[in-house]
Structures are given as C-alpha cells and as structure tokens.
Amino acid sequence: MKKILSLLAVAALVSLLHAVPANAQSAGGAGQPLHIVVPFAPGGAQDVIARWLATKLTTRMGVPVVIDNKAGAGGVIAAESVAKAAPDGNTVFLASGGAISIAPHLNAKLTYDPLKDFAPVALVADTPMTLAVRSQSPYQTVADVLKDAKARPKQVTFASTGNGTISHLTGELFAQTAGVQLLHVPYRGAAPAMTDLMGGQVAMIVTSAASITPMVEDKRARVLATFTTHRLGNLPDVPTMNEASGLKGLEVPVWVAVLAPAKTPKAVVDKLAAEVEAVCKLPETLERFNGLGALTTCGGPSEAGKVVNDDYARWGRVIRQANIKAE
C-alpha cells in the first residue's frame, strides 16, 4: 500500500511540475518567450506598434514577448531570419510590404519565397500614404497636378523616400493610373525629401500621413489626397485619391501584419491570431495607433493573407510597367 501511495505521490508531483496556467501558454511551446522580429531600428512607427503589441500580449498570454530589431536591406534581413526560424509559434515577423510584396520583384536572389515561406497570422495596422505639396505650391488640387503633368510630361517632380520603396511605388501607381509621366526624385528617407519639398526643389512628395501631418499642422505643407478608402480622422478635410481624381484602384494599404514561419501548426496560428486580434480591437490600441498616424485594420489569417497576395500582385505590375530596378 505504501508503495502504491509513493507512486501516486510521484505521479502527482510530475503532473504539477509540468502544469502551467492556461493563460501562461505562448503561441508555441508552453511558457516559451514569443519573439516579434521587427525589420526596422527602434523608434519608428512599426517598432512602436510592435512594442505596444508586446506589452499587451505579455499580459494576455502570461509569457515574455521580446522585440528583436533586425534592420537592414529594406526588411529582407528580418524576413530571412523568420523564414528560417522553427515553425513552433515562438518567432513571428511584424511584416510590411517592403520585404514581402516589393523586394521579391526587385531581387531575384532572395533566400525566401514571400508567399510560400510564411503563414499569415493577423492584420494589425495601416500606415496610409498621401500626396502632398508645400503651402506655397500652385497646386491646390489633384486636378491641378494632372493638368500640369499632361501639359509637361516628365517635368512635374515627386519626391519619395527611396528607390523601390512604398513611397516611390505609390507615386508610380498614381502616374500609371492617371496616364501621366511624372519625374521621380528619390531620397534616403523622409527627412531630406521634406527639406527639398519645403525648399521648392521638388513639386510634390508621396509620403505617409504620419510624416506629413506635423508639416500640415505647422501650415508648411498641404495634403492634396490620401491613398485610402476613407478619409483619415486626423485629416478630415482631405479627400481620398478616388474622390480627388475620380480614378479607381488608388487605395493603397500600407499594411502591417504578423506572419509566422510556414508549417507553423494551424492551431498555433489560430491561437496567436486570436490574441493579436483581441489586442488590436482594444479602444486604447485604436487611440495609440491614431497617435502614430496609423489605422487599426484588425483581421485574422484570411484577411492578412488576402492583403499580402493583393499587394504582391499590385507592386509586381507597377514595377514591371515602370521598369524599376534595384539600386
């Protein structure tokens, strides 16, 4: 009898040692930290979004959520690291279009396939793009821009944050859809592009709402239109590009989504998706993202997958038509 009781006691102890609370389970292994790989240096909007998610997910899931910043090569370095990570749900990619829907059309030597090597988990945010001019610009509307561009092919300039960036491609999409030829002037980031816009060296800029809003508030710049489906809450008087031009197909989601390595079990993906969506839908998340000039676009694996596929096809068409090459 004593032997049986001893065996039962050992079994109970083993059970206790292996037990963890239901809310202390990471997406993958029990109690393991969740690593969110961010393709940019600390401090930017996407890094802030990642850290917000990390704080909320840590509380909800009961495990540490660690931010791994892997900047460089337009997000390719980060994407490669996640594509090669174990598909256990403990490493995910806070992805955007640069490494997933743009780089594959510009770099034939990528070590990953963006559509095969990742499993969509959740759609989180949209950092919308705008077409803007300095306050002294003669362009009051998008119609003014198109009229001048048709009269002076390849002479009306637009600044972007770099060759092959979402800023550049959105400007090219606008020109292609409108049937005009604009002159692209690439810069190494938004700051030098803004400087030349303010100085009148370039006529327009295609940049994020977050980047241009401070200039608008200081009355140094004017946004002519947003590349969005609906007007932005912080720019309510600014029309969408559809409203401003009557052109279709200029709704450009500059998405932020969570992707996992391919072959991550569906149950693991679904569990993590539910947690991320729950955080995304919190009122305080909406407020925090709005402060960054971002929109919340909460969605699960199917919504994230559709956005990725649509974006991949869109930028492939634009890059081929404009014959854009990697620098």
Describe the structure concisely:
Helix content is 44%, strand content 19%.
Structure description:
- Helix 2 (45-61) packs across helix 10 (266-280), helix 4 (97-106) runs parallel beside helix 12 (301-322) and helix 6 (166-178) crosses helix 12.
- It contains twelve helices and eleven strands.
- With 327 residues, the protein is α/β, with parallel strands linked by helices.
- The chain has helices spanning 2-18, 45-61, 76-83, 97-106, 142-151, 166-178, 190-199, 209-217, 241-245, 266-280, 283-291, 301-322; strands at 34-38, 65-69, 91-95, 118-126, 129-134, 157-160, 183-186, 204-208, 221-226, 255-261, 295-299.
- The strands form two sheets. It has a six-stranded mixed β-sheet with strand order 2-1-3-10-4-11, with helices on both faces. A five-stranded mixed β-sheet has the order 7-6-8-5-9.
- 44% of the residues are buried.
- Residues 1-26 have low confidence and may be disordered.
- The chain folds into two domains: 31-127 and 254-322, Bordetella uptake gene, domain 1 (D-Maltodextrin-Binding Protein, domain 2, 3-Layer(aba) Sandwich), CATH 3.40.190; 129-245, D-Maltodextrin-Binding Protein, domain 2 (3-Layer(aba) Sandwich), CATH 3.40.190.10.
